[in-house]
Amino acid sequence: MALFGAALLTGCQQAQQSLSIGDMASAFNREIWVMSIWAIALSVIIFIGVSFALFYTVQKFREDKHDAPPAQFHGNNKLEVWLVAVPVVIVIFLSVLTVRSMAILNPTPDQATKIDVLAKQFWWNFTYPETTADAGGKVANGNELLMPTRQPVALTVTSGDVIHGFWAPNIGGQRAAMPAVQKTWQVDTDRAGVYQGNCSQLCGASHANMRYKVVALEQERYNTVLAAMKAYRAPEPAAGSAEARGLQLFLQGKPETGAASCAGCHRVQGTSAAGQVGPDLSFFGTRRTLGAGMWESEKAQEMLIPWLKHAPRVKPGALMPTYDGSEYMSKGKMLKGGTLTDAEISDIAAYLRSLKLPEEADYWRDVPVIGAASTGGTQ
């Protein structure tokens, strides 16, 4: 059943990256596996015992072997006691194992790396509450979770709208992300790599497209990347460049055509853009995914212009406004989007691609993609 479930989860991934609840690189999964062995073993014993009793009884008391009417009796007190006592003992035993595992897994040690997870339709934001950026505000990244290996990571999960489900099976169990509720628990992995994560709670039209990547790095490299994120300031584009024009549109929009500014919804570290409605775009140029993991690598680059022009068309239910002048649905209302020319949209794309961490802090470089369908799978 575990293998079958893993196969089903694999089939859900556009990039053919498999998920595994049996990934023993995670101490969380190892603990759950130990508890599961007992549950599976007891289930097998019960199945064999019940099947034996059934077939034995049917065979022994076959009609063709007994012509006389069966004896009438009220019941069997001894049998009834056993039928009650055995399940009670099994349930108590499994309950003790469950409480033990919960006592091990639920508390988060003080030295755990703390990461806040915000889920919204249909994207994720990951904030590092213990790391304040030199440019102001907490270091954050949209749709790509960066974590260290070989130590517990305390994830505090919440939602900004409806109930979502945070689940990256390779690093630990899943938790519901609920509005106005914060849940903290620990995940971990001993192996550096890129892992797949999904929303596991039906949350709307693009539930299946609400994905994210977990990039686990060795502690030293993780520290290097986090330090670079802390010191990062968005680059100042050269005057007259496509990036400079894109920055102006990003911050101010184009009021005369009704095109809203990107800064009203998104934050870029080191600029006046401090929006909280959408995912943090501070390191957009370093990221390898687009649309909350809907597209990856080369496909993400290819889809950036269509995404900026008309996000709801390429991702059903996306709440980002359109910039080709067409109408779009937002929270049950039909709205008319603003208008930007193809050249202006290309300028915004050029600016977004310029938002890169230093080369030494490229957290995707030479990191194996765990469960990738192709051989070698590194980013």
TrEMBL record:
It is a multi-pass membrane protein. It comes from the Bacteria. Its cofactor is Cu cation. InterPro entries: CcO_II, CcO_II-like_C, Copper_CuA, Cupredoxin, Cyt_c-like_dom, Cyt_c-like_dom_sf, Cyt_c_oxidase_su2, Cyt_c_oxidase_su2_TM_dom. It is an enzyme of class 7 (translocase). Binds a copper A center. GO terms for molecular function: copper ion binding; cytochrome-c oxidase activity; heme binding; oxidoreductase activity. It is found in: Cell membrane; Membrane. It catalyses: 4 Fe(II)-[cytochrome c] + O2 + 8 H(+)(in) = 4 Fe(III)-[cytochrome c] + 2 H2O + 4 H(+)(out). Residues 110-228 form the Cytochrome oxidase subunit II copper A binding domain. Residues 241-356 form the Cytochrome c domain. Signal peptide: none annotated. Its EC number is 7.1.1.9. Keywords: Copper, Electron transport, Heme, Iron, Membrane, Metal-binding, Oxidoreductase, Respiratory chain, Translocase, Transmembrane, Transmembrane helix, Transport. The chain crosses the membrane at residues 33-58, 79-99. PROSITE patterns: COX2, COX2_CUA, COX2_TM, CYTC. One of its GO terms (cellular component) is plasma membrane. GO terms for biological process: ATP synthesis coupled electron transport. Subunits I and II form the functional core of the enzyme complex. Electrons originating in cytochrome c are transferred via heme a and Cu(A) to the binuclear center formed by heme a3 and Cu(B). Belongs to the cytochrome c oxidase subunit 2 family. This is Cytochrome c oxidase subunit 2.
